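re: that chain from earlier
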Amino acid sequence: MQKSPDAFRTISEVATELDVPQHVLRFWESKFNQIRPLKRGGGRRYYRPEDVDLLRGVRALLYNDGYTIKGVQKVFREQGVKFVSETGKGLIDASVAERAREAVQRSEDDERSPGAPIDAIGKRVLETILEDLVALKDEIDETLWEDEGEEG
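^ sequence. v structure.
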């Protein structure tokens, strides 16, 4: 019997779905405080669909896009939970993801040389990313409004 897409998942179900060991999920939970499954008696974890999307995004950033743990932490800080979750859902265009990676890399480079200002190219890249993200948000909002109109 298949579970509903809205059903909570156990750690073993999520580990199987993401093809990672359970201890990796626990490790990610310790490194990314944005991952907060519900915990029931005996410490059993139950993952909501949005938790699974977030974990899928973390997995994609680490395994597919080559980010480090610190890099993903920086993505959470600079791009937000929604960006990571949408990455997990496959909603982030590859070019937007690449520009975000470049911005994170530049940010890491800037941390190595504190006080270094963002150059004109870096500023333009960030502006372009922001424009892309705003456009994506508008598309998502339009889709949500259309879906709500169909239901009502």
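The longest strand covers residues 45-47.
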